[in-house]
Design brief:
This protein is mainly beta. A hairpin with a 2-residue loop joins strand 8 and strand 9.
């Protein structure tokens, strides 16, 4: 799946990932390939991203995640 993580200042990540864990408002959300469409608010926490080359983490202060057609867009603060 394709993942974009964008803040008002810059783009943190843009590329392919095998899995993703985000801090949803009601708990952690795990996202894999072919995930059902989803829009959710995010709270302060860590976005964990797994790629073929390893795992990356990004600290966010909140935001929104959208999952649609194997594309994940995170608009983070």
């Amino acid at each position: 799946m394709t993942v974009e993580i964008i803040t008002p200042d810059k783009e943190l990540f843009n590329g392919d990932a095998t899995s993703l864990v985000v801090p949803g408002s009601d708990g952690l959300l795990g996202i894999l390939n072919s995930h059902a469409p989803l829009i959710s608010s995010l709270k302060k926490g860590v976005v964990k991203l797994s790629t073929d080359s390893g795992e990356q983490t990004f600290d966010i202060k909140g935001g929104v995640v959208e999952v649609l057609n194997n594309k994940v867009m995170i608009l983070a603060e």
